[in-house]
Amino acid sequence: MSSYSLFNPAFSDIFDAFDRGMNFLVPATTAGTPRVDVKETDDAYIMEMELPGYKDKDVEISLKDRILSVSSRHEENVEKKADSKDNKAPEYLIRERRMTSFCRKFTLPADINPDAVQASFHDGILEINIPRRPENQPKMIEIKTR
To answer: Where is the SHSP domain (predicted)?
Structure first.
């Protein structure tokens, strides 16, 4: 099975194209959803998702019925309140950073081991390791003589 047919991203790509069309003033790298790379090895599928500025606690991953969901609700900048009566909260002249959220869903192939999926987060990269079940080897049947 090739990596292209593995996760069937066609559905999410339709929405990514729609997002780019709606956000034509914003570069495609900042519009829509985070991009994902998927690698296939003999014993696992490895997903890498770029999430700059996110922390591991900002991201939620779930797996149900071979549907892997990665989602987040992330606020870029938290308002600072006034620290005393003499010191008022800063007023923004321009505010381009905002709260963002996303949800990506992937249909995983049948050969995965759902109980062994692991995720790690380092330097803004979320890595999800999805182990594959060993291929079933044919069982040799002994022939007995009578």
So the answer is: 27-146
φ, ψ dihedrals at 25, nearest 5°: -85, -10
**90 falls within a domain:** no
Contacts of range 12-16, beta carbons closer than 8 Å, 24 or more positions apart: 12/104, 12/105
pLDDT, one tens digit per residue, over 23-64 is 333 333 445 689 999 999 989 999 999 998 889 999 999 999
CATH number of domain containing 112: 2.60.40.790
Q: Are 9 and 32 in contact (CB under 8 A)?
A: no
Q: Is residue 54 in some structural domain?
A: yes
Structural domain tally of the chain? 1
Q: Is the pTM of this model over 0.85?
A: no
Question: Tokens in use for 144?
Answer: 């007995």
For 88-110, how does the pLDDT look when each residue is reduced to its tens digit (9 = 90+)? 778 888 877 777 889 999 999 99
Q: Do residues 51 and 61 lie in contact, with contact meaning Cβ atoms separated by under 8 Å?
A: no
Q: Residue 91 carries which side chain, given as an amino acid letter?
A: E
